[in-house]
Write a structure and sequence with these properties.
Blueprint lengths: L1 H10 L3 H12 L6 H35 L13 E3 L2 H23 L11 H28 L6 H28 L5 H22 L5 E3 L5 E3 L22 H6 L4 H9 L16 H19 L6 H27 L1 H14 L6 H50 L2 H6 L2 H43 L2 H14 L1 H31 L1 H6 L3 H51 L5 H42 L10 E2 L7 E11 L9 E9 L3 E6 L5 H9 L3 E9 L3 E4 L8 E2 H6 L6 H10 L3 H6 L7 E2 L8 H14 L4 E5 L7 H15 L4 E5 L11 E6 L2 E6 L1 H7 L3 H24 L54 H8 L7 H26 L12 H46 L3 H6 L2 H17 L1 H25 L4 H45 L1 H6 L3 H50 L7 H11 L2 H27 L26 E9 L6 E10 L4 E6 L5 H8 L7 E6 L2 E2 L5 H5 L2 E4 L8 E2 H5 L7 H10 L3 H6 L7 E2 L8 H15 L3 E5 L7 H14 L4 E5 L11 E6 L2 E6 L1 H6 L4 H22 L2
Parallel strand pairs: 4-8, 7-13, 7-14, 9-12, 12-13, 18-25, 18-26, 21-24, 24-25
Antiparallel strand pairs: 1-2, 2-3, 5-6, 5-8, 10-11, 14-15, 16-17, 16-19, 19-20, 22-23, 26-27
Helix pairs in contact: 1-2, 1-6, 1-12, 3-5, 3-6, 4-5, 4-7, 6-7, 9-35, 10-11, 10-13, 11-13, 11-15, 12-13, 12-20, 12-38, 13-15, 13-37, 15-16, 15-17, 15-20, 15-35, 16-19, 17-19, 17-20, 17-33, 19-20, 19-31, 20-30, 20-38, 23-25, 23-26, 28-48, 30-31, 30-34, 30-38, 31-33, 31-34, 33-35, 33-39, ...
């Protein structure tokens, strides 16, 4: 009887009250005391709520009287129609039903037989109070309608929750008394059922909280009433299905139906995915997280709030709702194991019990399963939604911090590390949200399991508890070890990603220097370190899996053994109930290691993110801003001392003092490393201020020395977030000499720029930067060497039309190495060793004659050389006949520039594709091909280990079923029945079978780990080699973020998840087949319903997969732009801050987060949509099986085996859902494999070495380069960059290549190195066609000093000689020649001195000198200089030219330069114009023709500099 009395407790979701009540029942309380106790407790609860209602009413009334509460805006002005949503209508109907039900109960209670409690007072009082409260509820609903609330008041929602619990308890009591007394259903039972149904609906509404009332305003706008609160972002392009869902749609996920309908018809596109709800939008979440930070700061009184406390405040409300659902689900799941003994007893005693009792037990099983499955889907969905919110909030915080990091903080953390915080660490923290609910479920599950075991086995339950706690205690050392492994994995991943990011960023220089193999080996070495860490973690995970699969067996064997020793009889019903409980207990035991592992991982990640978020930021008080009407100075620095490194003994800048009046032009000059760029940085507030003041007045614009170009089109880069003003835009474009470039671009200014402006020349990037600054219409312009990357003609045009033209009234501070631009400055600052050594006008500085003359003298000498050549050409103009040109040269007249062919006419239609270098990320459509699965499974040993894994799992399943079957068959059905064998023998057989199964699990888990890690490693190596060996065209058109996304996120899936996901697909199918086999043993009739239900499940899966698959793909694709935008923003943070564009970039980041959240959220919800439907179908099969077993006549089935079938059938819904869920989840995860396969088969560059075509060891000996009909284009859909180039560079000569920016000079150099392959034609060096030999054979014999000076993180030695081919003496000799020897010797670590990421602790000029050092070490017979001296001053330039002249004497030197004096002494000059040869001859012959392009350039340069030269000489 005690068991039946506890049945009531199992129907009640308030487990605390249940456990207390059960203890009282088992203490011997009389049956009659229970109902009265329930009514007394109900009265107290109801009176409490009446008091709360009264206080709430008084409070609100007083508020209205005192403050005259405002009505909704517009109500008095317009007639507003009100639309009542379904939620409000349902709440009204349910409240009326409940009021009616309780009124009906009053007359019934006059007959005491209708009441379980024979004392009429408490029963009648309870019903009367209920009537009063429900009448009050209706009044409250009326007030809600009148006052147009968007949410129900909290007292009302709380009452509905408690009413549901009271109704549930009452229904459980009724069921208990009917079963106990073999009674019949009465009228008040139907009233209780109606009350339970209505209160269940109200319970759901209380969770949702929305009234659904909507206003209809006459102008056609429909707005939800916000009760005085305004909502932002009311206008959206896409509808939000989730935000508009009804209560039923929320519980059943039916709001996704329109999306599934669209996805089933055709593959979904990003624009077809609905918006996320406002509460899930990145902007709302970012603001909410900021508020949580502020709350924690204020509460704790600290400036550095704890990230753990902040996350708790951020998620606590939603997490509490999730916890409620999780606890309900956990509680309901234990009803089944509890009822098994009753069910077996019912089958044994069928002749003495009515069939109604059996149906009630079946109803108990079914009701519990429905509650369990529904609440389970809700808490899992809530956990995913909460994870999305936390990920969006943390991602936005990391991004915002990245824009504000101080220079020192930025140097301590590389881009790769920071990217890992966003891509990996945030994901691990959000994964913990999934496991967080396990914390609430564990105590509930263990308590209920022990309670059931205590009911069945008495004191044996204490043994089970002790065994359970012992096993859980084993987790502590295992978890500590796992945490250490996880930290090691993250550190190794950081190092690998940092190196990968650097390699991808500088892949071009690696290929040019033939260092790609060396850096490939470095990446593989870093991966091996990571691999070892992952393998240790997976081995430990395999051992842990074995321990916890064996745990239920061990606990059950120990418990049953203890029962035998204590003399507790083991009947079949008790054993089956215990076994079912042990299987349920398996879940918390399994989840505990996952929980602890997740805690370990998330704590490591949270600490890493917290450390990053606490890094120093740019000090906003470094620069003081003065109103323009209060000062005449735009820039003013007094006593300034600044440093990049606070730990350095000497400041970077010292004694800085100057004032700049409004409209002044200030030039900054000095030698390499003197502090010129740092001076601009201190004005921008980028440097740490040690002392002094910096004041600026007005809006500023900044042009950095290294061009920072955003992905997007040219116009977007120039507008930079400002509205398009056609007139202002045209003026800026014209002043920056971009008109001609736009005509050449395939889509004009709408041409898309590749990552980091990779498809633009250096000059074009620089001028786009300047145009961006000009368009800003700022007051103060800071230009860092703006003329270095442009040719002389363009430089003159920029200076005259831009600086002295459109910006003539603006304040300009410009750094320059071109001395000819100094005389126009109102003030010149000469920097030396971080100090302003001289300041004054050009004339004043020449008079002082204390250092400035070094720069001027170098320039004057260069200019004199040009004027000498020019005058000599004029004097000999009539002496050299035109027909005496060398045979090796082509005359200028033959190669005169002609108009473009008609096929390249600018009138041709400019399609969108033509304008784009970077195409949308490739995305497979349709189902993932079987070849992807097959390739993955057969990667290791041809898939030979896969059958062994499946066999091991199948053997485990057979042995597990056999052990349970043995116990059910061998144990007696009642206490008095004789055993078929001794209990010791029964337990021995059971234990042997179970231990055998556990060993199979050990084999399976170990093999899965081995296959998973080996496959992952093999695919990684394949992808890495494929990417590194890809041609430059791939990197030009592929943002780094796409590659990094595969190398980090997708690779993590392969490392840690993929093998387990696929394994579980097979394991869950095997488990399901085992369950079906057991059920079919008892009642084969269940197949009548099981087969059609399975067919429906398969249909649902087929309906689900097309939509889910595309959503998963879109989510993967939309993650790359988030990472790419972050990487771009990090590299250009100084520019973003200078233009005060932080807010715009933060908003752009939030938009990209939402673009990722949309498909991710709907994909996460889609699996819940499917699982909910499969769960209900499984419940239907389970119910059918139960009814079948109850209905079949006695004697047909063995009660013990029937109990065993029910034991397995309890988990039928879990298994069936698990099969589909694992299949779908594996397919979603398989997208990562698919994406890695995509990058494992990139078309490769030409072979590095072709053994049968290797050039001689001394090749190239002469260095003659022949171009024959060369045509180059960067991609098939883009126009040709070089057209019909035919000429010969003689060996051992100096050849200068000149032309306007964008004319194809750098492309010609790339063709020599085969960075781009010719579309037509050939290049022959010393008789060898370079297309016929290996790339390493070619590139290793050539030297280049590139346009962009690149340094790698590491040491000075590593940057000069990464292949360790040269001795220290050789390296020191080269450093001395490059004028860097003294600088390096001054550093403590000498050649091992640190170089940070991108070489940012070295000036651009110093980096250029390091590049020169590399060429000097290599000493090739062909040297290419691509703007090699653009970033150094004139004096250093002259030194470099002298070094190159001496060291590369009698070698072929090809020079691209904008400084005319660097090519004026060349033996030959090649002039390119729009991709064609305009002129090619000796400088003298070209100067003889006054109409030649070269002659015009020289004339313009000499004319521009003549006044400067005269001025300089007059002061000497």
């Amino acid at each position: 009887m005690a068991r039946l009395m506890v049945l009531e407790a199992m129907f009640n979701s308030s487990w605390l009250a249940t456990n207390l009540k059960t203890v009282q029942l088992e203490a011997g309380w009389q049956q009659a005391s229970l109902p009265c106790l329930w009514d007394d407790a109900s009265i107290l609860l109801q009176l409490g709520f009446l008091a709360i209602f009264l206080l709430h009413f008084v409070w609100k009334t007083g508020e209205v009287l005192c403050t005259h509460r405002k009505k909704v805006t517009g109500v008095e002005k317009h007639h507003i129609g009100i639309k009542f949503g379904l939620t409000y209508k349902v709440s009204l109907v349910c409240s009326i039903l409940l009021l009616g039900a309780h009124i009906m109960m009053l007359p019934m209670l006059q007959n005491r037989s209708e009441a379980h409690c024979k004392s009429i007072a408490p029963v009648l009082s309870s019903e009367i109070i209920q009537v009063i409260i429900w009448a009050t509820t209706l009044l409250a609903l009326y007030k809600i309608h009148r006052r147009n609330f968007i949410e129900y008041p909290w007292p009302l929602r709380t009452w509905w929750v408690c009413s549901f619990l009271l109704s549930l308890g009452r229904a459980a009591l009724d069921a208990y008394f009917i079963i106990a007394n073999h009674g019949h259903l009465r009228l008040h039972n139907f009233a209780s059922f109606i009350s339970l149904l209505a209160s269940t609906f109200l319970f759901g509404i209380s969770i949702r909280g929305k009234t659904g009332i909507v206003l209809h305003i006459p102008n056609g706008i429909t707005d939800p009433l916000l009760d005085g609160k305004s909502e932002k972002h009311s206008e959206t392009k896409r509808t939000c299905l989730y935000g508009n869902a009804t209560l039923f749609e929320l519980f059943s996920f039916s709001w996704l139906n329109p999306l599934f309908a669209a996805g089933f018809k055709k593959p979904l596109e990003q624009d077809e995915v609905p918006d996320v709800d406002i509460r899930d939008s990145a902007q709302f979440l970012s603001y909410s997280f900021d508020e949580s930070l502020k709350h924690v700061k204020d509460r704790d009184g600290t400036s550095i709030p704890s990230i753990y406390k902040t996350m708790f405040v951020f998620i606590r409300k939603k997490a509490a709702i999730n916890a409620f659902f999780a606890v309900m689900s956990a509680g309901a799941s234990y009803v089944g194991p509890y009822l098994i003994d009753d069910f077996v007893n019912f089958l044994n005693e069928r002749k003495t019990q009515s069939i109604g009792s059996g149906y009630l037990i079946a109803l108990g099983f079914l009701g519990a399963k429905i509650v369990e499955t529904t609440t389970q889907r809700q808490w899992i969905f809530g956990a995913r939604q909460l994870g999305l919110r936390l990920r969006a909030a943390l991602t936005s915080q990391i991004y915002k911090k990245g824009l504000l990091l101080s220079s020192q903080s930025r140097q301590s953390r590389t881009s790769g590390e920071i990217m890992n915080y966003m891509s990996v660490d945030v994901q691990r923290i959000t994964d913990f949200i999934w496991y967080m609910n396990t914390i609430w479920q564990l105590p509930v599950q263990i308590s209920l399991a022990i309670f059931i075991l205590h009911t069945d086995l008495g004191l044996g339950s204490l043994v089970a508890l002790a065994a359970t706690l012992t096993v859980m205690a084993l987790n502590i050392p295992l978890t500590r070890l796992q945490k250490r492994y996880q930290s090691n994995i993250m550190d190794a991943k950081d190092d690998r990603m940092k190196a990968t990011s650097e390699v991808l960023r500088n892949i071009k220089i690696l290929k040019l220097q033939t260092w790609d193999n060396e850096y490939l080996q470095r990446l593989e070495s870093l991966r091996r370190t990571e691999y070892n860490c992952i393998w240790k973690s997976l081995r430990l995970q395999a051992v842990t899996t074995f321990i916890f699969w064996a745990t239920p067996t061990c606990i059950s064997a120990v418990t049953f053994g203890a029962c035998v020793l204590m003399g507790i009889p083991l009947t079949a019903g008790r054993v089956l109930s215990a076994l079912a409980t042990f299987r349920m207990l398996q879940d918390p035991i399994f989840s505990l290691p996952d929980l602890l592992s997740s805690i370990a991982q998330s704590k490591v990640s949270a600490d890493r993110i917290a450390s990053y978020l606490q890094e120093d930021e740019i000090d906003s008080n470094t620069v003081e801003f003065s109103p323009r009407d209060q000062t005449e100075f735009d820039v003013e620095i007094n006593g300034g001392r600044f440093s990049w490194d606070l730990e350095s003994r000497s400041p970077t800048l010292d004694g800085i003092q100057f004032q700049v009046r409004r409209g002044m032009k200030v030039a900054v000059c000095g030698t390499v490393g003197s502090g010129k760029s740092s001076l601009l940085s201190c004005i921008l507030g980028e440097m740490t201020k040690l002392s002094g003041t910096v004041k600026i007045s007005g809006k500023k614009a900044y042009v950095p020395q290294s061009a920072w170009i955003l992905s997007g089109n040219v116009r977007e880069n120039i507008l930079f977030g400002n509205p398009y003003d056609r007139e202002r835009y045209e003026r800026a474009v014209k002043a920056c000499a971009l008109k001609k470039d736009f005509e050449l671009f395939s889509a004009g200014d709408l041409t898309e720029i590749g990552e980091r402006g990779i498809n633009m020349s250096g000059g074009q990037k620089q001028r786009i930067q300047i145009a961006r600054a000009v368009y800003q219409d700022a007051d103060i312009y800071l230009l860092d060497d703006p003329f270095s990357a442009v040719d002389a003609q363009t430089g003159t045009q920029l200076f005259e039309e831009c600086l002295m033209g459109i910006l003539k009234l603006k304040t300009i501070i410009y750094v320059t190495h071109q001395v000819e631009f100094l005389p126009a400055a109102d003030l010149i600052l000469v920097m030396q060793n971080g100090r302003i050594m001289q300041a004054g006008t050009f004339e004043e500085l020449l008079v002082q004659n204390i250092g400035f003359e070094v720069l001027v003298g170098a320039h004057s000498q260069a200019l004199d050389a040009i004027l000498t050549v020019e005058s000599s050409s004029k004097s000999s103009q009539n002496e050299i006949p035109d027909d005496e040109a060398s045979d090796n040269l082509t005359s200028s007249s033959e190669l005169a520039y002609t108009k473009q062919d008609s096929e390249l006419n600018l009138c041709v239609e400019k399609t969108e594709k033509e304008s784009r270098l970077v195409q949308d990320e490739e995305r497979e459509k349709g189902s993932i091909g079987k070849e992807v699965y097959w390739s993955y499974l057969t990667t290791v040993k041809g898939g030979a280990l896969v059958p062994i894994i499946i066999l091991a799992q199948s053997t485990f399943q057979v042995l597990q079923i056999a052990s349970n079957y043995w116990m059910a068959w061998a144990c007696p059905t009642t206490s008095g029945t004789e055993l078929i064998a001794g209990m010791d023998f029964i337990l021995l057989v059971y234990t042997l079978l179970a231990v055998g199964g556990s060993l199979c699990v050990l084999v399976r888990s170990t093999l899965v780990a081995v296959v998973g890690i080996l496959t992952s490693q093999k695919l990684f190596n394949s992808m890495l080699r494929s990417v590194i060996r890809a041609p430059m065209a791939f990197f030009d058109s592929t943002p780094t973020g796409r590659i990094l996304n595969r190398a980090s996120t997708d690779q993590s899936v392969l490392d840690l998840e993929m093998a387990h996901r696929l394994g579980w697909c097979a394991f869950s199918v095997i488990q399901l087949l085992g369950t079906i086999a057991v059920m079919s043993q008892v009642a084969w009739e269940v197949f009548v319903i099981f087969i059609p239900v399975t067919a429906i499940c398969i249909w649902y899966q087929q309906y689900y997969i097309p939509t889910a698959r595309e959503l998963a793909r879109l989510a993967g694709i939309q993650l790359a732009p988030v990472l790419h935008h972050f990487a771009e923003s990090l590299s250009g943070a100084a520019t973003i801050r200078a233009f005060d564009q932080k807010d715009r970039f933060i908003d752009a980041n939030l938009g990209l987060i939402d673009n990722h959240s949309r498909p991710w959220f709907h994909n996460a919800t889609a699996i819940e949509w499917l699982c909910f439907r499969l769960n209900q179908l499984s419940n239907f099969v389970f119910a059918f099986a139960l009814v079948l077993l109850v209905t079949l006549p006695g004697g047909i089935i063995n009660p013990s085996i029937a109990g065993l079938a029910v034991t397995y059938a309890i988990n039928l819904n879990v298994l069936q859902t698990s099969v589909i869920w694992n299949l779908c989840n594996a397919e979603n995860k398989m997208i990562s494999v698919e994406r890695i396969f995509q990058y494992s088969s990139i078309p490769s560059e030409a072979p590095l070495v072709i053994e049968e075509c290797r050039p001689p060891n001394n090749w190239p000996e002469v260095g003659m380069i022949c171009f024959r009909n060369l045509q180059i284009r960067y991609a098939e859909h883009l126009p040709s960059v070089l057209k019909n180039i035919t000429c010969t560079f003689p060996g051992r000569k100096r050849v200068g290549v000149v032309g306007r920016t964008g004319s194809g000079k750098s492309t010609l150099i790339q063709a020599i190195f085969r960075i781009v392959e010719p579309r037509e034609g050939s290049i022959i060096i010393d008789g060898v066609d370079i297309s016929k030999i290996g790339l390493h054979d070619l590139r290793s014999r050539l030297s280049i000093i590139p346009q962009d000076p690149i340094m790698f993180e590491g040491s000075v030695r590593g940057n000069l000689d990464p292949l360790n081919q040269y001795s220290d003496n050789e390296i020191w000799e080269v450093l001395d020649k490059c004028q860097l020897g003294g600088l390096v010797r001054d550093k403590e670590e000498k050649l091992d001195s640190t170089v940070v990421e991108n070489g940012e602790n070295w000036s651009v000029g110093q980096r250029q000198l390091i590049c020169l050092g590399r060429a000097l070490l290599k000493r090739s017979n062909i040297l290419v200089l691509d703007e090699a001296t653009a970033s150094v001053d004139s004096a250093t330039d002259r030194v470099m030219q002298n070094i190159i002249g001496q060291e590369f004497k009698d070698r072929t030197i090809v020079t691209i330069a904008h400084r005319i004096h660097t090519i004026i002494d060349s033996d030959l000059v090649l002039v390119l114009h729009e991709g064609r040869i305009a002129e090619f001859d000796t400088p003298v012959k070209l100067l003889e023709r006054e109409d030649s392009f070269f002659s015009r350039v020289i004339k313009e340069y000499s004319t521009r500099s003549q006044s400067f030269n005269n001025l300089a000489k007059s002061h000497n």
